[in-house]
Amino acid sequence: MSSIRVLLVDDHAVVLRGLQYFLGTQAGIELIGEASNGEEALQKVKELRPDVVVMDLIMPVMNGIEATRQIKQLYPDVKVIVLTTFSDQDHVLPAIRAGANGYLLKDVQPEELVLAIRGAHSGQAQLHPRITDQLMAHLASPAPAAVVSPCIDSLTAREREVLVLLAEGKSNKEIAAYCHITEKTVKTHVSHVLSKLGLSDRTQAAIYAVKKGLSS
Question: Where does the signal peptide begin and end (predicted)?
Fold first, then answer.
């Protein structure tokens, strides 16, 4: 069986040396290069075509999330394992959405990293337990309430007529005379129109009517 070709990406030399020292002793894993930022990682992936990239997140020039996104777009067969200190949703979710095949924290045991590299290479998602908890919490959180768009169909025939007259610039008194109703009733209709359409004033109602082609 051929070795798994691994590219290391981290802007800290000490981290790179430590990873090189340990992974270099593992059977079936071949370290083929390293990079210190996302832009350099893209170039190395193009040149070396690794099987797995071990990717830090916070780096100069280009961060690991953007690098992961571009690598997965250009080289979808290359597996990317994020290895970072950040376990919050602001980092986890964007990395997963960018296409990362795994997300590990730098407190993992070296043996766990080796297992993750082998697992990712064989197509299995690799997540640190804390990351799994974050994703579960995100999925379990209630979805935001849907925003209901204003709908002209929610208006009664009289309310629609009042809306058209509003758009024509008529006052409540003029609308009352035109519709043969009291000004108080006009005010009630205007209030209902604004409420149903989610508008705050008569000006917005007039603009809405014009946009909908109800008035010239």
Answer: none
What 3-state DSSP class applies to 214? coil
Task: Please state whether the predicted TM-score (pTM) of the whole model is above 0.70.
Answer: no
- Report the relative pairing of strands 29-35 and 52-55 from DSSP bridges: unpaired
β-bridge mates for residue 83, sequence order: 104
Q: How many CB atoms lie within 10 A of CB 135?
A: 15
- Specify whether domain 4-140 bears CATH 3.90.1150.180: no
The fold for domain 152-211 equals Arc Repressor Mutant, subunit A (1.10.10)
DSSP letters, 73-110, are HH-TTSEEEEEES--SHHHHHHHHHHT-SEEEETTS-H
Contact 53, 71 (CB under 8 A): yes
pLDDT digit string, tens, across residues 50-92? 999 999 999 999 999 999 999 999 999 999 999 999 888 788 8
